[in-house]
Amino acid sequence: MTDQPGVSASNTQDDEIDLVQLLVTLWSGKLWIALFSAVALLIGVLVAVGTPPTYQADALLQLEERKGSLALPEGLDGLVGGNSPRGETERQILMSRMVLGQVVGMLNLDWSVTPHRAPLIGSILARYDLPVPEAGFLDTYERPGERLTLDLLQVPPRWIGQDMELSVTGPDSYRVTLPDDSVHDGETGETLGAPDAGFSLKVGRIGAPAGRMFTLAQTPEDKAIRTLRAALSVSEQGRETGILQVLYKSGDPRRAERVLDAVTQVYVRQNIARSAAEAEKSLDFIEKQLPAAETEMREAENALNDYRQEQQSVDLTFETENLLTQINRVETELRALEAREDEVSERYTSNHPVYQQLLTQKARLNEQLAKLRGEVGNLPETQREVLNLTRTLKLKQEIYTQLLTRAQEVRVLRASTVGNVRILDSARTAPSPVAPRRSMIALLSLILGGMFGIGFVLVRHWLRRGVQGSEELESAGLPVFATINFSQDADRKTRAGGKWPIVALTNPADITVEAMRSLRTSLHFGMLDADTRSLAITSPAPEAGKSFTSTNLAVVTAQAGQRVCLIDADLRRGELRKYFGLKKNTPGLAEYLAGEITLEQATYDTGVDGLSFIPTGRYPPNPSELLMRQSLTDLMAQLDAQFDLALLDCPPTLAVTDPVILGRAAGATIGIVRFDVTPLAEVEAMKRTLATSGIKLSGVILNGFDPRKAKAGYSYNYNYNYRYEYKART
User: Fold this and answer.
1) Residues 451, 486: one domain?
2) Which DSSP string corresponds to 197-234?
3) Same domain, yes or no, for 407 and 441?
4) What is the pLDDT at residue 721?
5) Mutual orientation of helices 438-463 and 4-28 as an angle, nearest 10°?
6) Which of 9, 242, 453, 526 is most buried by its number of CB atoms within 10 A?
7) Count H helices, E strands: the chain?
8) Separation CA 541–CA 702 (nearest Å)
9) 584 and 639 housed in the same domain
């Protein structure tokens, strides 16, 4: 239990270190992130500029309840329409082939006229008036405001969906290549026909100069309907409001408005036609029932008259007439209660007081009807028969009269049908395009670019195998003489004519130079047991900073009052001469080893007190064989007698065998390890290569250390808040 708090604290500390390290890693890769963001932003801007604009037209429809303008009798409403608007049903009707097919036929949306556009920049060239020369292959591509209008296009079934190439040959003339490779010339306003092929074409207007190319095609009707449906959207505004918003998108604002207006008009017309068809169907049904109803009425009337004649003009008495009236009244009330019961049953349960009250009234009326029918049974047979025949006649007359009334009302309704759809807002296109949203594209591109940049920096950081600190080198059994921090001046080289700057001379207060002084002290005590006062400096691979380290170390050592000789021992690619302004092929080490010049002739003054320099000379064809001569041993002996320290800038160990030869001749050998660049495996391989030849690697120098890039756990962040400057006494 006592260990748990410590574990939690440790985990918390590790998390904090990871977070800080993450921020440091991202900050160190800010240039990469900025580069990715800039490239992504540039791509986003090009996409936004190159994407054709899309315009949107909108219209608003209202679905009304289907009711006639007349007070129709009960039951007629069910014949002429429903009660509530059905938004989803109407939406499906509006998107159906029945409606869209008519629009395709009206506006000839199955005709396709596509201008040729240049690859990649075609949209930009077609939208912006750029200073593009009208010459060469660019003649065929579309420019701003150019169009071609068709008045007629008819192709045989086998050519539907196939392209035809039209080339403008003049202000009012063109040449078209058909799918069968036949070529025809035509003029605007005239019908171009190929009777054998079943082809007809009439171009109404050419708004493009000669040389422009257009692709013509007649697409299948189903495909044109699908294309129209894909650009069309219908949605109900709110819930059960009966308000439909219809949207249509197109690259041409006038086309968007024209197409959407046609869609709404066709939909309204079919709605009116549907309502009229329903009224016509109802009228046809009623008119078919009228003859039968009239026949039944006549039969009932004849039956009553025949019975009266048979019984010698028997009339209803006052009591019987009153009884008939009461029965008719009760039956009418019962029918009304039954209709109301259907409505109440949908709103209440059978135990609800309203429902119970209705059932009570119904039971009372049934009881009254049964009583009245019982009184009818007590009437004389003649009166009872006359009563029944009279009731039947009145019922048949009422049915016939209602049918006549309904037929007349449906005729009036059919003549005044307007449908149940009303256009609230006609089609209109917004002045500004709805796509592309350039600001949004640019913002998303910037965000995505930043995300990709962050991902690149993190992956690059996690995959990095370079040495991150002196602990890794020491764990490999290699002493670290010094850690030289990264400096901007260290990588700044003047290659255009002049000398390369030496930081120890140009900026002696730099933190890198201070690290060189610390290295000078470490080497002074580290070489006390060396056979000669010579030091070979090498590295596992190029670009580790050997030349920079060797030169600045030689300068700070000479500034300490010692006699130093710096030798450029890289006979293959040595360039130390550029630090001292010597020309290429200046005689040096190669000529001395070949016996062509003396040591004095190979040694040059550097302008720094106590510092002498031996360049490589001409690059020899056999550097390894040249270094294996006895003259190298003689050279090291002479340098040991004349100088306090001789520094040999050697080639990379893992690249050539020269460092092994130079290392055997020198008193000590040290390696340069580049922070975050040189893998630890290469350092160990360098150590093994030297050890195989009997050379002990005395230690290494960690060069170019950048605390901002260091992983968690390495904190070589030296801050010098005080400067020590030497002032001359006056």
Assistant:
1) no
2) TTEEEEEEEEES-TT-EEEEEE--HHHHHHHHHHHEEE
3) no
4) 34
5) 120
6) 453
7) 23, 20
8) 14
9) yes
Are 546 and 622 found together in one domain? yes
The secondary element (H helix, E strand) that includes residue 403 is helix 381-415
Model confidence at 381, pLDDT cuts 50, 70, 90, reads low
Contacts of 430 (CB under 8 A, 6+ apart): 55, 56, 57, 58
Peptide bond preceding 436 in cis form (omega within 30 of 0): yes
Candidates 408, 312, 315, 330; CA nearest to 371 is 330
Q: Cβ(158)–Cβ(169) under 8 Å?
A: no
Q: Is 139 left (phi over 0), alpha (psi -120 to 50) or beta?
A: alpha
Same domain assignment for residues 158 and 177: yes
Domain membership of residue 7 (yes or no) is: no
Q: How confident is the model at residue 66 (pLDDT cuts 50, 70, 90)?
A: low
Residue bearing tokens 């020899």: 620
pLDDT the model gives residue 78: 44
- The number of distinct structural domains making up the chain is 4
Q: Is the domain of 305 the same as that of 372? A: yes
Residue 262 lies in a domain: no
Residues 392 and 484 in one domain: no
Q: Is the pLDDT of residue 494 over 50?
A: no
Phi/psi of residue 197, each to 5°?
-95, -10
Strand order across the beta sheet in which 421-429 lies: 232-236, 243-250, 55-63, 421-429
